[in-house]
Amino acid sequence: MQKRALGTSGLEIAPLVLGGNVFGWTADRDASFAVLDAFVDAGFNAVDTADVYSRWAPGHQGGESETVLGEWIKARKARDRIVLITKVGSEMPAGKGLKAAYIQSACEASLKRLGVDHIDLYFSHFPDKETPIAETLEAHQRLIAQGKVRAVGGSNYDAANLKEALDAAGGSRARYTVLQPHYNLVVRDQFEGALEHLCAKEGLGVIPYFALASGFLTGKYRSESDLTKSARGGRMKDLVKGRGLDILGALDKVSARHNATPAQVALAWLMARPGVTAPIASATTAAQLKELAPAAALSLTAEDITELTL
Ligand SMILES: NC(=O)c1ccc[n+]([C@@H]2O[C@H](COP(=O)([O-])OP(=O)(O)OC[C@H]3O[C@@H](n4cnc5c(N)ncnc54)[C@H](OP(=O)(O)O)[C@@H]3O)[C@@H](O)[C@H]2O)c1
Question: Which of 53, 76, 143, 291 is 20 to 30 A off residue 221, Cα-Cα?
Answer without folding.
Answer: 53
